[in-house]
Design goal:
This protein has helices at about 10-20, 30-40, 75, 110-120, 145-155, 165-170, 210-220; strands at about 1-5, 45-50, 50-60, 90-100, 125-135, 170-175, 190-195. It is an alpha+beta fold. A hairpin with a 2-residue loop joins β2 (about 45-50) and β3. Bound molecules: coenzyme A.
């Protein structure tokens, strides 16, 4: 298994896979994926086994101060187009990650998260932030509020297929993002706000995106 940058040729396979992962949530459109690749190609990764795509992780860079209040997935991804990708930001935002349901639990999610952490380090970004689904919540939603569910996952009393994985990947839980994906019935529409801080971040240096942006401005002047 390996990870590599996503290309335009991968789009059809990715759309098919996404449909299998989320049978009840509308998949991306072809034009949205194509635009993500135009806007921030470095942030789009796929995992490959035997020449077949078995997972993907897509990210954009944002100015977190603009988004720290409540937001939905649709808002922070500009409806899946990543139009709000901001080269001046310090935060890699995880917009999506999924693995072929036939091969979960074999380290593919871990490899994709490793790819994201490597990107964050290479670009000298301060952190990775994401809002993770809570697909186990619907099973106990009648018995407890979502905040208690998340705490029980943190305390180790409950296991959530996504949040438990993200905590193992070194992410810290920061609270609930209410109504993040309204059509996500399994998570009762909520998500867990999580962060991973880049231990190698050098605040005295610009990010590689800021550097490239500044150079472009100099050339235009
Ligand atoms: C969440 C998700 C991306 C994780 O992907 P994955 O490939 O299963 O992740 P990994 O295999 O790296 O790790 C998953 C678990 O398997 C375990 N595992 C990893 N390699 C393993 C191996 N070789 N043998 C047995 N177990 C293994 C890990 O310890 C981990 O356990 P944990 O969940 O208790 O922490 C995947 O389940 C998924 O696509 N879910 C549906 C889509 C979704 O909701 N995405 C999240 C959007 S926010």
């Amino acid at each position: 298994m390996r990870t590599r940058s996503t290309t335009h040729k991968d789009i059809d396979e990715l759309l098919r896979l996404q449909k299998a992962v989320y049978p009840t949530i509308a998949p991306w459109r072809r034009d949205q994926l194509a635009q993500q690749l135009e806007v921030f190609p470095q942030g789009q990764l796929v995992a490959i086994v035997d020449d077949r795509i078995v997972g993907c992780a897509s990210s954009l860079v944002i100015l977190w101060d603009e988004w720290a209040d409540e937001h939905t997935w649709k808002e922070i991804t500009s409806a899946g187009t990543f139009d709000n990708h901001n080269p001046n930001g310090f935060t890699l935002y995880g917009a999506e990650v999924f693995v072929d349901p036939r091969v979960t639990g074999r380290g593919i999610g871990h490899a994709l998260y490793d790819g994201r952490r490597a990107l964050c380090r290479q670009m000298n970004l301060r952190r990775i932030i994401a809002c993770g689904r809570l697909p186990g919540y619907h099973k106990v939603a009648a018995q407890m509020p979502v905040e208690l569910y998340a705490k029980k996952v943190l305390w180790g009393d409950l296991t959530d297929p996504v949040l438990s994985f993200q905590l193992r990947e070194g992410f810290r839980y920061c609270g609930i993002m209410y109504g993040y994906i309204p059509e996500d019935a399994e998570s009762c529409s909520h998500a867990a706000l999580i962060v991973w801080l880049n231990p190698n971040h050098n605040p005295g240096k610009p990010t590689t995106l800021q550097e490239a942006y500044d150079k472009e401005q100099d050339i235009e002047l």
